[in-house]
Amino acid sequence: ELKVEQNPLFLSMQEGKNYTIYCNYSTTSDRLYWYRQDPGKSLESLFVLLSNGAVKQEGRLMASLDTKARLSTLHITAAVHDLSATYFCAVDIYSGNTPLVFGKGTRLSVIA
Amino acid sequence: DAGITQSPRHKVTETGTPVTLRCHQTENHRYMYWYRQDPGHGLRLIHYSYGVKDTDKGEVSDGYSVSRSKTEDFLLTLESATSSQTSVYFCAISESGGDQYFGPGTRLTVT
């Protein structure tokens, strides 16, 4: 059974600082997704990582995938308040019709 | 944005009544999913569909049933609502079973 663990689950960080959210998973996969959810809103797709060593960047967020370590990271550079949200990773083992397995989410709060 | 809507967006119902939530898409995507989201539990998959009339159970399927008679619609039914089913329900779609696009959510309260 695929397990996906995110840490930390809660993160309070100051504006301007850097931090990394980790997503570990238990079964071989080279397909991983990151989503963002603003409070009271739905989830939106952030990054799609489809191979070992994949790196995607958008603004102050950068996601990477290391399939050998079964680890993805979401790095936040010089945080700003607008990045406050919950971030989910989801892993695809791509075996027929098996759905994505989501982590529990990391609730990020960026404070002045 | 993917064309995906959910109805109703908010509903209050009484324990023991049946409730049906609708998810409608205009993207002609093959896969559709129902999740519930509760504090401390993240997203939990209830049921999913990989084609018309093809559905399967997710992690928390007890007390829920689904139907998909057309590509564009995926219905979630709570056969006899209980207070433990108070939650926010999200529908999602996917073209190939990978990246998912989420609907706006339905907030359901069972009193």
Mean of pLDDT of chain B: 95
Give the distance, in angstroms, between the N- and C-terminal Cα atoms of chain A: 41 Å
Unreliable segments of chain A (pLDDT under 50, ≥5 consecutive)? none
Straight-line N-to-C gap of chain B: 34 Å
Shape of chain B: globular
Residue fraction in strands of chain B:
over 45%
In short:
The complex is a heterodimer of chains A (112) and B (111). Chain A has 112 residues and is mainly beta. Chain A has strands spanning 4-7, 10-14, 19-25, 32-37, 43-49, 55-58, 61-66, 71-76, 85-91, 101-102, 106-111.
Architecture overview:
The complex is a heterodimer of chains A (about 110) and B (about 110). Helices cover about 0% and strands about 55% of the residues of chain A. Chain A has strands spanning about 5, 10-15, 20-25, 30-35, 45-50, 55-60, 60-65, 70-75, 85-90, 100, 105-110. In chain A, a hairpin with a 5-residue loop joins strand 4 and strand 5. Chain A is globular, with a radius of gyration of 14 Å. The termini of chain A are far apart. With about 110 residues, chain B is mainly beta. Helices cover about 0% and strands about 60% of the residues of chain B. Chain B has no helices and 11 strands. Chain B has strands at about 5, 10-15, 20-25, 30-40, 40-50, 55, 65-70, 75-80, 85-95, 100, 105-110. In chain B, strand 9 and strand 10 (about 100) form a beta hairpin.
Write the layout of secondary structure elements.
The complex is a heterodimer of chains A (112) and B (111).
Chain A: E1 4-7, E2 10-14, E3 19-25, E4 32-37, E5 43-49, E6 55-58, E7 61-66, E8 71-76, E9 85-91, E10 101-102, E11 106-111
Parallel strand pairs in A: 2-11
Antiparallel strand pairs in A: 1-3, 3-8, 4-5, 4-9, 6-7, 7-8, 9-10, 9-11
Chain B: E1 4-7, E2 10-13, E3 19-25, E4 31-38, E5 42-51, E6 54-57, E7 64-70, E8 73-78, E9 87-94, E10 101-102, E11 106-110
Parallel strand pairs in B: 2-11
Antiparallel strand pairs in B: 1-3, 3-8, 4-5, 4-9, 5-6, 7-8, 9-10, 9-11
